[in-house]
Design brief:
Arylsulfatase, C-terminal domain, four-stranded antiparallel beta sheet, 18 strands, iduronate-2-sulfatase activity, IDS
């Protein structure tokens, strides 16, 4: 009898220590970045898209339906995510920061992963998290002497397999095809085979491997960032994903006409430089549908990778103590305003999905419709992990919107090399550096067709002042 009492006491003590350890341990972070992903998801209103895994994440967390990136291009957008501040407008934004750190190491603020690393986290990146997959520079993006984010990661990994190097994987098509000259590479492709026939299958395999390693060592919380490349150009996905859209009727493209007057319209150079078999989606309706279906296939392929990662997280049991963030690095025009690509300041170029989920979230599955922006992610993660929020970050914590799904948002600002823009609930103002303006009333003109700048100069000046104060 006495032995049973002693044994029960020991077991109870052990359980109490384990429970206290779980309670006191900081929450893990799983950040999933998806390249060129506009809100073309079932849970964001695109009912024809097959995205069951991301939709499930929405049902278990909070979708921010009006999230806007701070720049419509991969490099500068990821700069804002990973630093919490606005930065240079070009793709070399993080490399410029890296050069400054090398010259003056104590001048630059720490990046988000570096901040969490300083606060006791193990930080690992897999795939395309910063602008270059694997986070290195050099000719083939694999030079260990040219680090995109110094001091940020304990490990930054890019499995290259048959694509030879990270540069090869970035624009890689099936079976190790590497882009040498864009004009010789098809703009879209679909091939029979497993998910590993394209690079994202290997990125996901490595992410799962890292999850297994990180969750087997409970000494420190982890910050694992995974970057999925598709649906970035060229569009390529295993045929089983393309087949999902074989008989699907796509909705019409809204506002297909090229804008008249001043705008951030461009000639879709990134898209047009690939082999298009002499076709132009602005002139060929059937080709436009084909392009959109290949984009959709890439979204479903990326969704499948997200599903595999989340399944592994649950399998390890770490999902009970992990904050999950899924973020699209910018929007992508699929024919709206006669643009096929990003790099513009219209709604479609800046609107992207943001989803945050964690154990115990209230009113899970309820979306927030307030305006939020990418720089909000850094302070939000600090808030959710009870780590001090650094004073230099420019965003606002989204914890109020996570606690109360119908909480209002704020404003979002964005920029490219030629203009800056501000998005409020009612208006979008685009302020060009040549002193021209675009003003759109989203209550009456959600597709940004009618420029009101000349007829509403007071509204323009009011918004311009707010924009200038932010940037």
């Amino acid at each position: 009898m006495q032995n049973r009492i002693i044994l029960s006491s020991i077991l109870m003590l052990g359980f109490t220590i384990l429970l206290n350890g779980q309670i006191s341990k900081k929450k893990n972070i799983l950040l999933i970045c998806v390249d060129d992903l506009r809100p073309e998801l079932g849970s964001f209103g695109a009912s024809y898209i097959k995205s069951p895994n991301i939709d499930k994440l929405v049902n278990e967390g909070r979708a921010f339906q009006n999230h806007y990136v701070n720049a419509p291009s991969c490099g500068p957008s990821r700069y804002t995510l990973l630093t919490g501040i606005y930065g240079p407008p070009k793709n070399d934004a993080l490399f410029l920061r890296s050069k400054k750190i090398k010259k003056e190491p104590n001048v630059m603020h720490p990046s988000m992963p570096e901040w969490f690393r300083q606060n006791g986290y193990t930080t690992v990146s897999v795939g395309k998290v910063s602008h270059h997959p694997g986070g290195r520079g050099g000719k083939d993006w694999n030079d260990n002497n040219v680090i995109e984010m110094p001091n940020a990661w304990d490990k930054h990994i890019m499995p290259v397999t048959e694509w030879q190097h990270p540069r090869g994987t970035m624009h890689g098509l099936a079976n190790g095809e590497i882009r040498i000259k864009a004009g010789d590479m098809d703009v879209f492709q679909t091939v029979e085979g497993p998910d590993t026939i394209y690079p994202d299958g290997h990125i996901t395999n490595e992410a799962i491997k890292q999850l297994e390693s990180l969750t087997s060592n409970n000494e420190k919380p982890f910050f694992l960032a995974v970057g999925i490349i598709k649906p970035h150009l060229p569009f390529g996905a295993p045929k089983k994903y393309f087949n999902l859209y074989a008989d699907v009727k796509l909705p019409d493209i809204s506002s297909q006409e090229k804008p008249k007057g001043i705008s951030t319209w461009h000639e879709s150079g990134e898209f047009m430089k690939y082999n298009r078999w002499g076709k132009n989606p602005n002139e060929d309706k059937e080709f436009a549908i084909e392009v959109r279906k290949h984009y959709a296939a890439c979204v479903s392929y990326a969704d499948a990778q997200v599903g595999r990662i989340l399944s592994k997280l649950k399998e390890t049991g770490a999902d009970k103590n992990t904050i999950i963030v899924l973020w699209g690095d910018h929007g992508w025009n699929l024919g709206e305003h006669a643009i096929w690509g990003k790099h513009n300041l219209f709604e479609e170029g800046l609107h992207s999905p943001l989803i945050i989920s964690y154990p115990g979230i209230k009113n899970k599955g309820k979306s927030n419709f307030g305006i939020v922006e990418t720089v909000d992610v850094f302070p939000t993660l600090c808030d959710l992990t009870t780590i001090e929020t650094p004073s230099f970050v420019k965003g606002k914590s989204l914890k109020p919107q996570l606690k109360k799904y119908n909480k209002k948002g704020h404003i979002a600002v964005s920029y490219n090399t030629k203009a800056n823009t501000i998005r409020t609930g009612k208006y979008r103002l685009i302020a060009h550096k040549n002193r021209n303006f675009e003003l759109y009333n989203h209550y009456k003109d959600p597709y940004e067709i009618n420029n009101l700048a000349k007829t509403q100069p007071k509204t323009v000046m009011k918004l311009k002042k707010i924009l200038d104060n932010r940037l």
